[in-house]
Structure formats: structure tokens, C-alpha cells
Design brief:
363 residues; alpha/beta; TIM Barrel; Lyase, Ornithine Decarboxylase, Chain A, domain 1; 2 domains; 26% strand; lyase; D-amino_acid_metab_enzyme; D-serine deaminase-like pyridoxal phosphate-dependent protein; D-serine ammonia-lyase activity
Length: 363
């Protein structure tokens, strides 16, 4: 019998999600490069590659190192690589892997170029552009000049641009995912063409998160999309309308450890089990609680401490100490990063554990 709390993965649903996204993207004639931040598991990345992905995306050098050790050969680190130690690791990884890294500043590009030159290597880079999320990325209006500066470094090969925007439309959160995706794609293509007018032969225009990938991929000139959450989906994506709750391949199995009052049950999963980065009742979705209780949509997962989850129930709910329930997390990416392993349900009655190999790889 499985010990709880336990992160469960429905293998058939996951494989269907992988297959469906690949079909949507390929129909548009665009490459799929999924972000492994959601699952952090090499075996799942290989399933995505077998399903038609051209390579993978990571956020950190250490994630790329884990994936490369498991035989994955085409990796994009979609994050500015800053610091000599990290750059040296990138250059080492680049000896055995088809690697591309993100840059968003002249300072960062200059140091990459210096160390690449010293190692007598050429490093592929993509310029990250801020299209409204106000995170990393050169401001949109400054991107052409920075592209020219990066292009001037002989040891760097500027292959393209990329952006991450999420569900934004005119820089505001939206549920109109089609308009958001089309706007994201059009902004990136327009910018890429302006850079090409300066004599820089960009190949890659990489955009698209799980909510927007299917729409951004329609834009002529977009070459690649990088969704991540789609492999499992979660309650946020279901609320956005990207998927149904039944499409969610990941859930957390927990045990009721206490029912101290008629209107409260306590489970053995708290903030060390479920992500807390998306708080309840925050825009744009204003979701109640920290997850969806499967089979009981009226129950509210209202608060957590480290080891306890408190769920509001009505007195007619029959839950007793020892009962087990499943919860679809609000945000699956951060939830996976709290677990050392996942349990795959194949439908045959046999469960298989997979290590979350890139969990906690933050450098």
C-alpha cells in the first residue's frame, strides 16, 4: 500500500497530453521544445522527444546537466547564464550537447563571449525579450540594438530570440488565450524581422507557454513553442480553459489524519507537499483554496502549515480518519519540485516509481 502523501501520475493521461500538444504544434509547422521545469524527470523528457519534440528547455544549468547525463542531446537553457562558474559548466556541457543559452544583457553576453573565446569554442545564444511580463528579458524597444551588440562577438552565434509571456494581453492578465497567443507571436515575429533588417540572420523565433502555445504557433514566422505544464496540467490551467480537470495527469494522494470538528478534516500534506506560490483568491483567476479535491468540488482546501492541510467540509461529508483522497494541485510545477519521486499509474494495477532527478537543481 502506498505511503502518503504521494504524487501520482496517470500514465495514460500524461501520454495523451504529450501526444495532443505535439499534434497541435506540428500541424502548424512549428517545432516543439517543451520546458522540463514541470516534471524534471528524464524519462518523461524522452517521452516528449519520442512524441516529436525537437529538444527540451530548462531554466538552470544544473537541470541541463541532469538531462544531458541521461542522454538528451538538444537543450536550450532559457535563462541568463551569469557568473564564471556557470559559464564554465555551460562550455563543458557544450562539448557533448547541442546547447543554446539565453542572454538579455550586453554584460552577460560579453562575459559569455570572453570565456567562450578563451576555450576556443563558439556558443549558440538566443536573445530574451520582455514582451510584457516584466521579468528577465531586454525591453522590447531596446532589443534590436542589443542583438547587434551580441552579433558582433565572434565567439557567440545569435540564433534567434525568445520570450515568455504567459496569459497576458496588452500587458494585462487575460482569459482570452487566443488573442494573447496571437499577440505574443506577432510581437516576436515583428521584432525578429526588424533585427534581420540589420543584417543578422536569425533562425529561431521561440514563444508560447501552455496557455498560448496552440495560438502562438499559428503566427507565420514563429518557429518554436515551449510549453511545459501541458504534460500534467493543473487546476490553474483547467480554470483558464486550457484543459479539463479530467485532463490533469497529476494528483496528490493524501490521508485524512484528523477530523477535529464537523466542518474540518486535516490531511497529511501541507506546504511541504503542495505549492504555495499561487495564493487563493488572487487575480486573474481568484481560485479558492490550494487545489481541487477529486470527486468533491465543494470541499475547500483552505489553509496549510508545513505538515498539515486543512480542508473545509460540511457535516454530511462522510470522511473519517484513515480515508484517502486525491487533490489536483493549483500549480503542478512547484508541487513536483517538493517531491523526491512520483508514482506512475499505468492502469494495469502495477505502480512504478520515478525519481524527480532534477528536483532542487537551482544553479
Amino acid at each position: 500500500m502506498l505511503e502518503t502523501p504521494c504524487l501520482m501520475i496517470d500514465l495514460k493521461k500524461m501520454e495523451r497530453n504529450i501526444r495532443d500538444m505535439a499534434g497541435i504544434v506540428h500541424k502548424c509547422g512549428v517545432k516543439l521544445r517543451p520546458h522540463i521545469k514541470t516534471h524534471k524527470i528524464p524519462s518523461i523528457a524522452k517521452k516528449q522527444l519520442d512524441g516529436g519534440a525537437v529538444g527540451i528547455t530548462t531554466a538552470k544549468v544544473s537541470e541541463a546537466e541532469v538531462m544531458a547525463r541521461h542522454g538528451i542531446q538538444d537543450i536550450f537553457i532559457a535563462y541568463p547564464v551569469i557568473g564564471d562558474a556557470k559559464i564554465e559548466r555551460v562550455l563543458k556541457l557544450n562539448q557533448t550537447t547541442r546547447l543554446t543559452v539565453g542572454v538579455d544583457s550586453r554584460q552577460g553576453a560579453s562575459r559569455l563571449a570572453e570565456l567562450a573565446k578563451a576555450a576556443k569554442r563558439t556558443l549558440n545564444v538566443r536573445l530574451e525579450v520582455d514582451t510584457g511580463l516584466k521579468r528577465t528579458g531586454v525591453p522590447y524597444e531596446k532589443a534590436v540594438d542589443l542583438a547587434e551588440a551580441i552579433h558582433s562577438f565572434p565567439s557567440l552565434q545569435l540564433t534567434g530570440i525568445y520570450t515568455f509571456r504567459g496569459a497576458l494581453l496588452r500587458e494585462e492578465p487575460t482569459r482570452d488565450l487566443e488573442s494573447a497567443g496571437l499577440e505574443e507571436g506577432e510581437m516576436a515575429v515583428t521584432l525578429a524581422n526588424r533585427i534581420r533588417e540589420r543584417g543578422i540572420p536569425l533562425q529561431d523565433v521561440s514563444v508560447g507557454s501552455t496557455p498560448t502555445a496552440a495560438y502562438a504557433a499559428r503566427v507565420k514566422g514563429v518557429t518554436e513553442v515551449r510549453p511545459g505544464t501541458y504534460v500534467f496540467y493543473d487546476r490553474m490551467q483547467a480554470e483558464l480553459g486550457v484543459c479539463s480537470l479530467d485532463d490533469c495527469a497529476a494528483s496528490v494522494l493524501v490521508t485524512v489524519v484528523s477530523r477535529p470538528t464537523e466542518d474540518r478534516i486535516v490531511i497529511d500534506g501541507g506546504s511541504k507537499t503542495f505549492a504555495t506560490d499561487i495564493q487563493p483568491n488572487t487575480p486573474p483567476l481568484h481560485l479558492t483554496g490550494f487545489g481541487h479535491v477529486v470527486g468533491h468540488p465543494d470541499i475547500v482546501f483552505e489553509r496549510m502549515t508545513e505538515e498539515h492541510g486543512m480542508l473545509k467540509v460540511t457535516k454530511d461529508h462522510p470522511f473519517q480518519v484513515g480515508d484517502r483522497i486525491r487533490i489536483i494541485p493549483k500549480h503542478i510545477c512547484s508541487t513536483v519540485n517538493l517531491h523526491n519521486r512520483v508514482t506512475l499509474e499505468s492502469g494495469s494495477g502495477e505502480n512504478v516509481e520515478w525519481e524527480v532527478s532534477a528536483r532542487g537543481h537551482l544553479t
